[in-house]
Amino acid sequence: MITLDNVSKTYGTGEQAIHALKPVHLHVPQGAIHGVIGLSGAGKSTLIRCVNLLERPTTGRVFVDGDELTALDAASLNRARHRVGMIFQHFNLLSSRTVFANVALPLELMGVAKREIRERVEPLLELTGLADKRDMYPAQLSGGQKQRVAIARALASRPKVLLCDEATSALDPQTTLSILELLQDINRKLGLTILLITHEMEVVKTICHRVSLISAGELVEEADVGDFFTAPQTRLGREFLNAFLELEPPQALVDRLAAQPGDDTHPVVRLAFTGDSVSTPLVSRLARDCDIDVSILEAKVESIQDRTLGLMIAELIGPADKTREALAYLESHDLQVEVLGHVQRDA
Amino acid sequence: MSSAMLELILEATLDTLYMVAVSGLIATALGVPLGVLLYVTRPGQILAQPLTNRVLGMVTNIGRSIPFIILMVAIIPFTRALVGSSIGTNAAAVPLTIAAIPFVARLVEGALNEVPPGLIEAAQSMGATPYQIITKVLLPEARGGIITGLTITVVTLISYSAMAGAVGGGGLGDLGIRYGYNRFNPTIMLITVVILVVLVQGFQMLGDYLVRRSDHK
Questions:
Q1: Pairwise CA distance, residues A303 & B95, whole Å
Q2: How many whole angstroms separate alpha carbon A47 and alpha carbon A195?
Q3: Domains plus CATH for chain B?
């Protein structure tokens, strides 16, 4: 439904040129919810704005619903944009228009007759839960309600694609969730293809099917969401995941960690259980089979859509040869093992 | 006070209102589009035309920098060609209009500049043409600021119109100078000033009311 072929964006020329987006390829199939995640300044915004040509790419071609947008003249591009809805971080509602009139705006722009506008706007207000707000002005609404208006407005022209530019970044966690549910609902009911950019893993985890990781204007990783959350392939991916899971060893322990094993030290490991290993009683087996003690320092289980991800930071206590054996045992199972360091036993 | 005097005051008030109304309306009709042009032709804007923008900006600045009293005299030939005379209220309305057009334009440009750029972007993402962006987004969203600007213009015109006496334009300022100042009649002087204050106050209140009504922020 959306294809970016070798799309790049450079601001300025020569020495001062800023390569906001290096040549990227991206394909989002019909009906998918695709997330692009990255830190601020990574080029997410440029990427999504290249899709509907709010930014004209320096190179490459953009296809939406079979049309090559980059090849269209101004008038055809405006018509094509009716099939691409967009919502924004700061909602961008017209303060001079009521909820109803805001949602009606794209239809007015398309020259739809008054009566038909009414017939099309009312159901959208129902869908987004705004029926009782139709005559209010944006200033009277909460952030979540404003984004609902923006969503209804984006849907008014019956688009095939919805672009979400940090759509939940200005909202509190609870409101974020309700907006994400609405987007998911729309995706299912209307079969709408959604491309969203965000810096929040929560958003990706909650509604995306696939995710791309963007860094310094490049798409460095692309994966199904389940895979990304259980086994990110890049360093940045792992950083995002760890920050999201907030599973870092306690500071007191970090201070005592040594990179190299000493005479009387024990390894501290971070274990990520995925797939089959989640339901296997590995820790008790480890203790039994390798004859060591396992001290669990932190543990967490996350559901990522249909997958489960278990995380644990643990200290393996025993003689050096035993703990080495234990590490080998863990690695032979379907889980990721990362030795964070070695700690002197204080007892 | 004699009824003749009252009649003079009434006539002067109507003259002032007439000059302000004519020049205000024409300046709005020409100044608002000029202000829109100044804004939309800016570099990076929806109809970016840097050269046009610079030329328009320069012309506007020249218009704004000529002292009104000099402008009024300087364009007498133009005024005569346009309204057939260089004296009277119609003749005074011409320089008032010329002075007010760039004034309105800059205030409108400023008001448009207050519209969040995100709104323009949102409209573009909906496939709006530049004309639609101007009529459906920019002007409605800047309405409060534009009304504020027009109110300032009307108030300025009232004060400028007092100078119109210099070309025999009549009006309250003229009355105040001829009868109040030249003939040492403090009552007339006071009355004209009071009427001017009331007019300015009235227009300001009307403007404020209209801004409040159009403001949903």
A1: 75
A2: 10
A3: 3-214 (1.10.3720.10)
Residue A347 has pLDDT above 60, yes or no: no
Q: What is the CATH T-level fold of the domain A246-344, as seen in this structure?
A: Alpha-Beta Plaits (3.30.70)
Across the A:B interface, residue pairs with CB atoms under 8 Å apart total 67
Establish if B47 touches chain A: CB-CB under 8 angstroms: no
Task: Select from 3.30.2310.20, 3.40.50.300, 3.40.50.2000, 3.40.190.10 the CATH code of A2-232.
Answer: 3.40.50.300
**Distance (Å, whole) CA A77 – CA B100:** 40
pLDDT at A255 over 90: no
DSSP H/E element including A124: helix A114-127
Tell me which residue of B180, B30, B194, B37 sits closest to B96, measured CA to CA: B30
pLDDT in tens, A149-196: 999 999 999 999 999 999 999 999 999 999 999 999 999 999 999 999
Enumerate the β-bridge partners of residue A9: A21
> B127 and A157: CB-CB below 8 Å?
yes
Asked if B101 and B22 touch (Cβ cutoff 8 Å), the reply is no
Interface of A with B (CB under 8 A): 52, 54, 74, 77-82, 84-86, 88, 90, 92, 94-97, 105-106, 108-110, 137-139, 153, 157, 163
What would the pLDDT profile of A16-63 be if each residue is shown by its tens digit? 888 999 999 999 999 999 999 999 889 999 999 999 999 999 999 999
Q: Taking CB atoms and an 8 Å limit, are A82 and B126 in contact across chains?
A: yes
Query: What confidence tier does A346 reach under pLDDT thresholds 50, 70, 90?
Result: low
Q: Which residue of B has its CA nearest to A105?
A: B136
Q: Where are the domains of chain A?
A: 2-232, 246-344
Question: According to the model, what pLDDT value does residue B166 have?
Answer: 63
